[in-house]
Amino acid sequence: MTDLIDDIHGIIESSIDDAYVKINRSMLLRNWSLGEIISSEKNRKGSISVNADCIRDSGFSVDDEEIVSFVRFYRDYPDMKKMLNDEGYVP
Known about the structure:
mainly alpha; 4 helices; elongated
């Protein structure tokens, strides 16, 4: 019976770990993509006015400092999207 319980716990723990990896990957991709689109629009227009209120309207809670960090994340890691989409990538 102990082996059965250990197997059940192993399956549960493995699925939880897998969910964390997928959530982390999704959040990284979201933040990188926000930085990409804000940075691209700024480069296209010269300057833009994106603030936390604009993004908050979508239901995503964010502040102005986080917006700056999204752009910085995109600029510092230009290949992040490719890395996140590679099958073997594990954060």
